[in-house]
Amino acid sequence: IAPVFVLLEYVTLRKMREMIGWPGGCGDGIFSPGGAISNMYAMLIARFKMFPEVKEKGMAAIPRLVAFTSEHSHFSVKKGAAALGIGTDSVVLIRCDERGKMIPSDLERRILEAKQKGFVPFLVSATAGTTVYGAFDPLIAIADICKKYKIWMHVDAAWGGGLLMSRKHKWKLNGVERANSV
């Protein structure tokens, strides 16, 4: 019923995926009203990807999930965990360095700690441009850890994603192309 809008959406989202660095702009996408809902969508998709049965059986049918994000990440990560029934206590805050960047060694330590407790790490939400410091998490190191432990990597780029269009500052998002969602 809206063929021009659908075409415009298709072309725009494909171009955005190309800018992220996904080969040929492959993948999928949706327009959303803001970063908070986008972070919740990422959490929803990561949970479904790991446990598709949650759609029919609900949270009771899956193990206790744990998400990881930096102590300087946006409040919406915890808000999304609450809304999706994962619980705010299941969001582990990872220490940051003096510049506000997530410390990868602390991330890996906390993942192992969660696994030892019998929890299932399912999402790491990295930040590209924190609201307080404007910090960019080390995406390459985080991607390596996510790959090692088979965890969905999301990048909250609501603040810093625009730098993908900058010749001078695009490097701050090195590794974003390795994320499962942005």
TrEMBL record:
Alphabetical list of Pfam families matching this protein: Pyridoxal_deC
According to Swiss-Prot or TrEMBL, what is its membrane topology?
Answer: Peripheral membrane protein; Lipid-anchor
Task: Give GO MF terms, alphabetically.
Answer: glutamate decarboxylase activity; pyridoxal phosphate binding
Q: Which SUPFAM superfamilies match?
A: PLP-dependent transferases
Question: What is a biological process (GO) this protein takes part in?
Answer: gamma-aminobutyrate shunt
User: Is-annotated flag, keyword Lyase?
Assistant: yes
Q: What cofactor requirement does the entry state?
A: pyridoxal 5'-phosphate
Subcellular locations according to the entry = Cytoplasm, Cytosol; Cytoplasmic vesicle; Golgi apparatus membrane; Presynaptic cell membrane
Write down the superkingdom of origin.
Eukaryota
- The EC number(s) attached to this protein equal 4.1.1.15
The keyword Lyase appears for this protein: yes
Gene3D superfamilies noted in UniProt: Type I PLP-dependent aspartate aminotransferase-like (Major domain)
InterPro entries per the UniProt record, alphabetical: PyrdxlP-dep_de-COase (IPR002129), PyrdxlP-dep_Trfase (IPR015424), PyrdxlP-dep_Trfase_major (IPR015421)
Q: Name one GO cellular component term.
A: presynaptic membrane
Q: Top enzyme class of this protein?
A: lyase
- Record keywords: Cell membrane, Cell projection, Cytoplasmic vesicle, Decarboxylase, Golgi apparatus, Lipoprotein, Lyase, Membrane, Palmitate, Pyridoxal phosphate, Synapse
Where is this protein chiefly located? cytoplasm
Which family does the record assign? Belongs to the group II decarboxylase family.
Q: How does it assemble?
A: Homodimer.
**Protein function:** Catalyzes the production of GABA.
The family database entries (PANTHER family) matched by this protein are listed as: GLUTAMATE DECARBOXYLASE 2, GLUTAMATE DECARBOXYLASE-RELATED
Q: Kindly provide the name given to this protein in its UniProt entry.
A: Glutamate decarboxylase 2
Organism field: Alligator mississippiensis
